[in-house]
Write a structure and sequence with these properties.
The chain is α/β, with parallel strands linked by helices and 147 residues long. It has helices spanning 14-25, 38-48, 57-60, 64-74, 89-97, 111-122, 130-146, and strands at residues 5-10, 29-35, 52-56, 79-84, 102-105.
Length: 147
């Protein structure tokens, strides 16, 4: 029998409830808790030490990247996937700089994408949405041209 991946979900919208229901019904996952804000995220991580934390940047706003840093400091073994809608790319990039390993776009990522992303970051692999990957590549190319 395979070990179940322990997941915590942070956000305050319907997407969180849908993700929780999806993962609860999917084999190989255990949802250890949900929270609606950064303080709740830290309590979840402290109390449950999840393998993966799904964190809504829309719910946390500009506090999202700092919450990622605090989670990683509190529980280095917890991998973080952030998600957001359109815009807020600066927060996503900042979350990666602070220790996030995955990114999903609200509305674009289907159930299979969420499950694949969780399994990938659990294995220590980075997951980037195509939109974010393109933006990072543009930044790298621009930086190389400037030097």
């Amino acid at each position: 029998m395979h070990q179940s991946i322990r997941i915590a979900i942070v956000g305050d919208d319907t997407i969180c409830r849908q993700m929780s229901a999806l993962l609860t019904e999917s084999e190989g996952f255990t949802v250890v808790g949900e929270a609606s804000d950064g303080d709740g995220a830290l309590v979840l991580v402290r109390d449950h030490r999840p393998d993966v934390l799904l964190l809504s940047l829309e719910a946390l706003g500009s506090d999202g990247p700092e919450t990622v840093a605090q989670v990683r400091a509190l529980s280095p073994g917890t991998q973080v996937i952030v998600w957001n809608g359109s815009g807020q790319e600066h927060l996503v990039l900042e979350a990666f700089l602070r220790g996030a390993l995955g990114h999903l776009v609200r509305g674009a990522a289907g159930p299979d994408d969420v499950i694949r992303a969780i399994r990938a970051v659990y294995r220590g692999e980075a997951v980037l949405s195509p939109a974010l990957a393109g933006r990072i590549l543009d930044e790298v190319i621009r930086g190389l041209r400037e030097h």
